[in-house]
Design brief:
Blueprint (H helix, E strand, L loop, with lengths): L1 H13 L28 E5 L7 E3 L6 H4 L5 E5 L11 H10 L3 E6 L9 H24 L8 E6 L1 H12 L7 E5 L22 E6 L14 E5 L14 H20 L5 E4 L3 H5 L9 E3 L10 E5 L28 H10 L4
Parallel strand pairs: 3-4, 3-5, 5-6, 6-7, 7-8, 8-11
Antiparallel strand pairs: 1-2, 1-4, 9-10, 9-11
Helix pairs in contact: 3-6, 4-5
Bound molecules: 2-acetamido-2-deoxy-beta-D-glucopyranose.
The site of 2-acetamido-2-deoxy-beta-D-glucopyranose has 6 residues, from loops.
Length: 346
């Protein structure tokens, strides 16, 4: 397993197309072709302050009373191996409902289960298309205002949110938040095939595993790199793949903490990853807050460290910033040198 992911990393940085050579070990993986929406494998669940246990929604019989009076609506989209009660739903949903913010949790677990990663990537655009159709129904029925609509996607779910932006025709989406958007198979240059800033009026991104499961590349209007996005504290031994899943999932924990502590995570501006890593870039007065209270005018890349235990937020912190790249993941030092020399996304 470790070898496979190491290879994914290696070729991920050179030729993403080769990755598709790693077909899944099992043949019963399920790839959508051109199915119509709605699709029985893509379900929508509404959670409100009054109904925190959730109700399944049907596009053809919407429970209007549950939406009224109109409230902000977060649409949470899980990633690979996820479902409606998995990261980032479990971290975020109760906090939003407490604030009387409605949540729709997507569930497309039958289209994104292990080990069927490349099928999950293939399915992402179909899931995005069905979400777009569903949201258009909500908008048309005036159950949410476009300006109150906010999509939050994790891993592959971040790219699903990007596809929603491509498919929704009447409106430009207001806001997409990407929690560690997935990297494997998304290193394509074509912006139509992954999340990018044209998918919504405002796209903010939280990076927590740029060396393995998440994109290093900036794909939003503003991109935050926590602990450089390289490793996260208390995730276990660096030679295990599970440790990277922990780095990846941590994006949801940081975002959740930002809901209860909206001014906790301040990053400082740095033009690119490489100048942060090499120490060229020093903290200036250009700060932006990450998470729930992010400013829609924020632009560029911002870097911040966290505490090693919750509460993770350090407020404005300029001391002892960790700019170490080596020894924090199982990627060896030679590869890191090569990566810094050759990676133009950095
Ligand atoms: C739902 O997914 C399963 C595989 O997980 C597949 O067999 C079935 O055909 C799918 N149904 C639709 C409507 O796509």
């Amino acid at each position: 397993m470790k070898k496979l992911w190491c290879l994914l990393f290696l070729i991920g940085f050179s030729s993403p197309l080769l990755v598709s050579g790693f077909e899944d070990e099992e043949s019963n993986c399920f790839a959508l072709r051109d199915e119509i929406c709605p699709n029985a494998n893509i379900t929508f669940w509404l959670y409100t302050k009054a109904k925190p246990e959730g109700i399944e929604l049907s596009q053809f019989n919407l429970p209007k009373d549950e939406f009224l009076p109109l409230k902000p609506l977060k649409v949470i989209i899980h990633g690979f191996k996820g479902h409606r009660n998995y990261t980032p739903n479990i971290q975020l949903r109760p906090l939003f409902n407490n604030l009387d913010i409605n949540v729709i949790s997507l569930d497309y677990h039958k289209l994104a289960y292990e080990p069927c990663y490349s099928e999950a990537v293939n399915n992402a655009k179909f899931v995005g298309r069905c979400i777009a159709q569903f949201l258009e129904t909500l908008l048309k029925n005036k159950l949410v205002k476009n300006k109150d609509l906010h999509l939050i996607g994790f891993g592959i779910g971040a790219h699903v949110a990007g596809f929603v932006g491509n498919f929704i025709s009447q409106h430009k989406l207001e806001h997409i938040t990407a929690l560690d958007p997935a990297k494997p198979l998304f290193l394509v240059k074509d912006r139509a095939q992954k999340l990018d800033p044209t998918d919504a009026k405002f796209v903010d991104v939280v990076h927590t595993d740029v060396m393995m499961l998440g994109l290093l590349e900036a794909v939003g209007h503003v991109d935050f790199y926590l602990n450089m996005g390289v490793s996260q504290p208390n995730c276990g031994p660096i030679n295990l793949m599970e440790t990277h899943f922990c780095y990846h999932n941590r994006a949801a924990d940081y975002y959740a903490e930002s809901i209860s502590n909206p001014s906790g995570f301040y990053g400082f501006y740095c033009p690119d990853f490489k100048s942060f890593a090499t120490g060229v870039c020093v903290p200036s007065k250009d700060f932006e807050v990450m998470g729930f209270e992010v400013h829609p005018e924020a632009r560029g890349r911002y870097f911040l460290d966290t505490n090693s235990m919750p509460p993770y937020a350090m407020g404005y912190n300029l001391k002892n910033l960790n700019r170490q790249l080596k020894g924090r993941t199982f990627i060896n030092d030679d590869m890191i040198d090569k990566f810094l020399e050759t990676n133009d996304e950095a």
